[in-house]
């Protein structure tokens, strides 16, 4: 698992500029997946051989009506200051290293002092980055940031690239040792995360799963400093529920920062084999739901979509029919109609099973665990090479590849490169001749033939080796 580095600070100090300079272009290329609408709030980067996830708190919508650029140096808007302080608190709770960005042009503001006071309460490493030091005078003036009591400030200009290497060097120095971030593999262990936006019932499902009928084996520290994992036994299987502390923790953060729930979910997803994506049946599909689903898909994890509070939704619909209640979401009338909504809104994970459940009453909770176990087992399925190539030949006979730029695609052979997730490599004459629609067709054929339900699978296309090409020309 990658360590987390959060950039905090008041608006307009250059957090997003630094973030985009570090990983903006790479993020747009790597994570621009059709059908997903994830905000560019975080991205992976590396420096001197260490990988880490960088968080741009400036990528978060304020939700206060206060324009980001119109911030006074003193006497800030109460809502805006609440938001800035919430950023700092979230960084304290979630990050391994905190970069506190300030503006070298304007000097220290009361907002900077308030955030610095909050950051001094944490034991986590805090690095002060004095941004916008675009000339010698500003670099000299930046020494005043020593008075924040957070150590030597690093002087940078995100736009010009001045000092960014020094800042990255310091970040890498402060990261936890790589071995602390590694998960130990335990044979037969299934890692499951319960993810979803606030108030969809994650805590209730966790309590239902860890109820009296199932024995809790242990609560163990996760790889983040405040994460706790819970291990249970269920029908002969050992299951580790990832980051149960994050699920149980009530939302102590103020309004305007709900998207940070994606952040915690992202880390839990990264550490799991299967993610349970929880939705609220009484509210329908929200943008935040698609964000989290996109994270699961991007990381090629197993997934179950759980439509929670189904009992409450049914009661509301009954009351509506009797004329005593007006349902706020009149699109949703039945399970079948709900499935249609999910098929459209979550069309990038069509392989995900959907379970209508009630964590409160226990309805279908057992089915959720049973489905998660089946999906985890499918992620370790190995397809014999001979059977795989028979399928490829059959698929190409049934539907010839699309011709791109007058060059037909030719698939020579395929092999399974790895499991968890199942990854298949196709050796072809020209990787640029692979149309996305034909890749989807091959994926669907693999799913039909080998029952890869509930898990992402990866397809990779490579040219044959030079030696194979020479032999083919003989």
TrEMBL record:
Domain of life of the source: Bacteria
Protein known as: GTPase Der
Gene Ontology BP, a term: ribosome biogenesis
Record: residues binding GTP 2: 196-203, 243-247, 308-311
Record keywords, A-Z: GTP-binding, Nucleotide-binding, Repeat, Ribosome biogenesis
Gene Ontology molecular function: GTP binding; ribosome binding
Record-linked SUPFAM superfamilies: P-loop containing nucleoside triphosphate hydrolases
Record bears the keyword Lipid metabolism: no
Coiled-coil ranges per UniProt: none
Origin species: Dictyobacter aurantiacus
Similarity annotation: Belongs to the TRAFAC class TrmE-Era-EngA-EngB-Septin-like GTPase superfamily. EngA (Der) GTPase family.
One Pfam family this sequence matches: KH_dom-like
Stored Gene3D superfamilies: 3.30.300.20, P-loop containing nucleotide triphosphate hydrolases
Purpose of the protein: GTPase that plays an essential role in the late steps of ribosome biogenesis.
Quaternary structure and interacting proteins, as annotated: Associates with the 50S ribosomal subunit.
């Amino acid at each position: 698992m990658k360590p987390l580095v959060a950039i905090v600070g008041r608006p307009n100090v250059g957090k997003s500029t630094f973030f985009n300079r570090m990983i903006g272009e790479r993020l747009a290329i790597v994570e621009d997946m059709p059908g997903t609408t994830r905000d560019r709030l975080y991205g992976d980067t590396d420096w001197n051989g260490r990988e880490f996830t960088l968080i741009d708190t400036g990528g978060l919508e304020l939700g206060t009506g206060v324009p980001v650029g119109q911030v006074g140096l003193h006497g800030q808007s109460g809502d805006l200051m609440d938001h800035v302080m919430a950023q700092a608190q979230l960084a304290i709770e979630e990050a391994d290293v905190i970069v506190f960005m300030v503006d070298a042009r304007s000097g220290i503001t009361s907002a900077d002092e308030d955030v610095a006071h909050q950051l001094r309460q944490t034991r986590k490493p805090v690095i002060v980055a004095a941004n916008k030091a675009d000339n010698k005078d500003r670099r000299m003036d930046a020494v005043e940031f020593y008075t924040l009591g957070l150590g030597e400030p690093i002087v940078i200009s995100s736009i010009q690239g001045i000092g960014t290497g020094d800042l990255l060097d310091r970040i890498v120095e402060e990261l936890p040792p790589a071995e602390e971030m590694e998960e130990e593999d335990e044979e037969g262990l299934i890692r499951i995360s319960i993810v979803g936006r606030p108030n969809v019932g994650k805590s209730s499902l966790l309590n239902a799963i860890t109820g009296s009928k199932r024995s809790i084996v242990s609560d163990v520290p996760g790889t983040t400093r405040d994460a706790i994992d819970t291990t249970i036994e269920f029908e002969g299987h050992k299951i580790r529920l990832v980051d149960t502390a994050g699920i149980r923790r009530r939302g102590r953060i103020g309004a305007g920062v709900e998207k940070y729930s994606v952040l915690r979910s992202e880390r839990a997803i990264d550490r799991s084999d299967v993610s349970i994506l929880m939705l609220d049946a009484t509210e329908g599909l929200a943008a935040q739901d698609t964000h989290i689903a996109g994270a699961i898909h991007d990381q090629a994890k197993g997934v179950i979509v759980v439509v929670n509070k189904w009992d409450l939704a049914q009661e509301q619909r009954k009351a509506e029919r009797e004329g005593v209640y007006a349902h706020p979401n009149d699109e949703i009338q039945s399970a079948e109609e709900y499935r249609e909504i999910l098929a459209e809104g979550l069309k990038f994970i069509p392989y995900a099973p959907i379970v209508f459940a009630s964590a409160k009453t226990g309805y279908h909770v057992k089915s959720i665990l049973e489905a998660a176990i089946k999906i985890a087992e499918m992620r370790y399925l190995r397809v014999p090479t001979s059977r795989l190539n028979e399928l490829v030949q059959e698929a190409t006979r049934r539907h010839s590849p699309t011709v791109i730029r007058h060059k037909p695609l030719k698939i020579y052979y395929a092999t399974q490169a790895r499991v968890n997730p199942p990854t298949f490599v196709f050796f072809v004459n020209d990787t640029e001749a692979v149309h996305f629609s034909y890749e989807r067709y091959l994926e669907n054929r693999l799913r039909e033939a080998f029952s890869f339900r509930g898990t992402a699978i990866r397809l990779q296309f490579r040219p044959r080796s030079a030696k194979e090409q020479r032999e083919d020309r003989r």
